[in-house]
Design goal:
heterodimer; A: alpha/beta; seven-stranded mixed sheet; three-stranded antiparallel sheet; 13 strands; 39% helix; elongated; B: alpha/beta
């Protein structure tokens, strides 16, 4: 039995944050009914920039976040469409959405209204900037609220280098993880109290939480400002620790060197062919090394250019020093480590084409990992779901005709 | 009643991913006992990289992911230390660890052994790269296993500039959401079946999940299409309505108004002061935009416009047309941001010595339950004596353990 078996979830998510959270819960056994408008979830169009197909029989991008869900399409502006949603919510354990709260309230889908009708229902809403404050009603995406507002984006590039927009959906999926946890916690509590919950989080809150180290470091200090206050981005050379940095190798590949920060300094210098500096008093302990980090950084940068990434890997492996060669996403899709652990899967679309797609990242003992599969088109389960909720064939036909629901 | 009230968690973990998940469980009402070696969790030292105090009673960086826990210190290589560990586990609902698998097995703290003894215990074990494959025994950190392996780090720089090491702890915290939700999924399962499961995730698996869009988007294609190339510079953009632009005052705006491109195109162009292109078919749909150099032409026009106003002036315009955007903050701006303060995302934390630091709170709110605030974490083993006594050890037995080194309290007053 999968951990969330028997739990019914209604997901009304757009783009990534809510769909990603619901996908996790679906993989763990919950039954997820996703409600889309007739044009479909906006994220169905993200395929354009990635040059992936987006057709009823092949939509690999959408599948990554929506695999395993049942897809129904309702027109919530039509009272009949809204009634279908209410019928489904009547049997649901969880309702999760990132519609703007004003819109939900107008539809009578706000917490207060739903809680009165369905006191056991767990209500989960997420927005960009939080439920209070001057920006509470502003539209938000992970690139704006999670990355730009929290300071992380600024910390991801050097002074003088151009910052890049974060790859789409990273901040959303991270926020989705927190929401999945919140929902699981609320379900546990409900087992004991019988009560529903009202859960929220925002992209900004999660950006701050993920950027905790820099947020804590970047503040005005009660002990007086340090001589070099911490303000990212730094010029490339002004790094306080040459370990935990990226170096370019002879073959142009980038090498992330981690080991050395905590006690492996002289060992690492020997590994890099810098024996003569292994006992250098300028690098004798962490604070002294920090004070001379620019010198050490230059030495190491030069050393790295003398061998290929593969050669450095063999050396670091031998010496037990932590490292990683920077993969591009294409390397990742072919990485045996990811395949052997089931982090990736090959998904065959109904049109016969195969795509690599990630699986969700959590495993339970004795529970087989759910594989990502083709997600289907807008409204592909509308008929079946409505029939389950007691609608007759004629009633469904009428709803389709009036446009209150859409099917394919 | 807080959400996880009554649950007991034993954490044997270091650095960030597992401790951050356990911190959130604390916030939600669980009782967490963290076990450190006498040398302490390595992340007690992380603050020094950012020139923050790492003192026993004032360690804001360490407090973020360990606030609210009871800290005890045991030497698990001693018989008495391990005996105490088992007493804690006998009473616990969840065990969470990132100790390497080989060591865990040697200590007899692996799932098989513990599950036999404590069949209701949820067993969470976290790795760098998973339990299978060539890298299963390699040490993993977020910068390596989360960022570098998943391809995500490459997505933050252009081909002609070097990549930079990521924001510290970011990949760990991102993965901690999977650690936490996995534990809670297993706990719900136990409430209904009585069975304790083993649950796992890894930095690499979480990295792939978070970077899903590029992992899917850049693969080899059998549909005949070519994956998008690695961008050489900002001009390689495929959607100039979602991009970073520099304003006249040198500040940057992340403009995200064109996520729903066709719907927002007209409003955005009017906002930029490019009304004359509102009907231009080269730019008005995504399908046309990605043809030829249309996107580049549009990008250049917008970039030029951005240089004519300050970030604040642009922000006012974009707010008026309801276009998503954000002035790019520095991390130091956050602890002064009204929006963050009023939502209680960051809050002041006062150390016992009177110094006050702004520290983030965990990111999920349950309405009707007060958000738990970060509190200072004490020195290694500060709760050792109290916890051991609670678990049935007499004063004399605790003394004996402290004397023999099976248990430890930093700065224990001399007899």
């Amino acid at each position: 039995m999968r951990p969330l078996e028997g739990v019914k979830i209604v997901e009304m998510g757009i783009f990534v944050v809510i769909p990603a959270a619901a996908r996790l819960l679906s993989d763990w056994g919950a039954e997820v009914i996703k409600v889309e408008k007739a044009e479909g979830d906006n994220s169905r169009k993200t395929n354009v920039v990635l040059r992936l197909p987006n057709k009823p029989d092949c939509c690999p991008y959408f599948a990554a976040l929506n695999s395993g869900k049942r897809l129904i399409s309702l027109n919530l502006k039509d009272p009949d469409g809204l009634k279908v949603l209410m019928d489904i919510l009547g049997e649901a354990d969880v309702f999760m959405t990132n519609f703007r709260y004003g819109g939900l309230t107008r539809l009578g889908l706000d917490y207060e209204t739903l809680h009165k009708k369905f006191p056991r229902l767990i209500f989960c809403h997420v927005n960009g900037y939080g439920h209070k404050g001057p920006d509470k009603d502003r539209p938000g995406f992970d690139q704006t609220c999670f990355w730009a507002r929290s300071g992380i984006l600024n910390a991801m590039h050097d002074v003088g280098a151009r910052a890049r927009v974060a790859p789409s959906g990273v901040g959303d999926t991270i926020t989705g993880n927190a929401l999945a946890a919140g929902i699981a916690a609320a379900l546990i509590r409900r087992e004991k109290t019988g009560e529903g919950s009202n859960i929220t989080s925002s992209l900004y809150a999660n950006g701050i939480w993920c950027n905790a180290a820099h947020v804590t470091a970047g503040q005005k200090r009660p002990e007086g400002d340090p001589d070099k206050p911490y303000v990212a981005p730094h010029p490339h050379k002004e790094r306080r620790n040459p370990f935990g940095q990226v170096y370019e190798c002879k073959d142009g590949r980038h090498f992330f060197l981690l080991g050395g920060s905590y006690g492996k300094l002289s060992q690492t210098l020997r590994a890099l062919g810098l024996e003569e500096y292994a006992d250098d008093p300028r690098f004798k302990d962490h604070p002294t090394m920090q004070a001379n980090s620019d010198i050490l950084y230059d030495l190491m940068e030069e050393a790295f250019r003398k061998k290929t990434a593969g050669e450095w890997r063999a050396i670091m492996e031998e010496m037990g020093i932590s490292y990683e060669i920077l993969y591009d996403d294409y390397d990742t899709t072919k990485d045996p480590q990811a395949w052997e652990n089931g982090f990736l899967t090959r998904m065959t679309c109904p049109n016969g084409l195969e795509y690599v797609a990630p699986n969700t990242p959590v495993e339970f003992s004795g529970v087989e990992r759910v594989q990502t599969t083709h997600a289907g088109w807008v409204g592909s389960d509308t008929r079946a779901v409505l029939a389950e909720y007691g609608y007759t064939e004629e009633q469904i036909d009428r709803l389709l005709e009036s446009g209150a629901v859409t099917a394919c | 009643m807080n959400v996880l009230e009554g649950y007991k968690v034993v954490e044997l973990a270091s650095f960030v991913a597992v401790p951050a998940a356990a911190r959130i469980m604390c916030d939600w009402g669980a009782q967490v006992i963290k076990i450190e070696a006498a040398s302490g969790d390595g992340s007690r030292l992380h603050g020094r990289d950012n020139r923050l105090p790492i003192e026993d009673d004032c360690n804001p960086n360490y407090s973020v992911h360990n606030s609210g826990k009871r800290m005890i210190s045991l030497d698990l290589k001693t018989k008495a230390g391990m005996e105490a560990m088992h007493r804690l586990l006998a009473d616990a609902d969840v065990f969470m660890s990132n100790v390497r698998w080989e060591s865990i097995k040697k200590m007899g703290l692996d799932y098989e052994t513990l599950h036999k003894k404590f069949p209701r215990l949820i067993y969470m074990h976290f790795t760098g790269y998973g339990y299978e494959g060539p890298d299963k025994d390699r040490p993993g950190f977020d910068s390596t296993a989360f960022w570098s392996s998943s391809g995500a780090l490459h997505e933050f720089h252009y081909a002609n500039t070097p990549p930079k090491s990521p924001a510290p702890g970011f990949g760990d915290v991102a993965s901690s959401g999977n650690v936490l939700s996995g534990v809670l999924g297993a706990l719900l399962h136990r409430e209904r079946t009585g069975e304790g499961l083993q649950v796992t995730t890894s930095l690499y698996a979480s990295g792939i999940w978070c970077n899903y869009s590029r992992v899917v988007g850049r693969q080899e294609r059998e549909d005949g299409s070519t994956p998008p190339g690695f961008p050489a510079g900002p001009e390689s953009t495929k959607n100039p309505l979602v991009h970073l632009y520099e304003c006249s005052d040198g500040e940057w705006i992340l403009f995200s108004g064109g996520k729903m491109y066709e719907r927002m195109y007209k409003a955005c162009m009017e906002g930029f002061g490019l009304e004359e292109y509102v009907e231009d078919e080269r730019f008005s749909t995504r399908t046309e935009l990605i043809k030829g150099d249309n996107a580049l032409v549009l990008y250049n026009m917008i970039a030029e416009k951005f240089k004519t106003k300050t970030a604040a002036e642009w922000s006012e315009i974009f707010t008026r047309i309801d276009a998503a955007h954000q002035i790019v903050n520095r991390s130091g701006d956050v602890s002064k941001d009204e929006q963050a303060l009023i939502n209680n995302y960051v809050a002041p934390m006062t150390c016992p010595d009177g110094r006050t630091y702004m520290v983030p709170n965990s990111p999920v709110t349950f309405f009707g339950i007060e958000r738990t605030q970060s509190v200072p974490v004490g020195p290694i083993g500060c709760d050792t004596e109290e916890v051991l006594k609670e678990y049935g050890y007499t004063d004399a037995q605790v003394e004996e353990m402290l004397d023999s080194g099976a248990a430890y309290v930093k700065n224990r007053p001399a007899k």
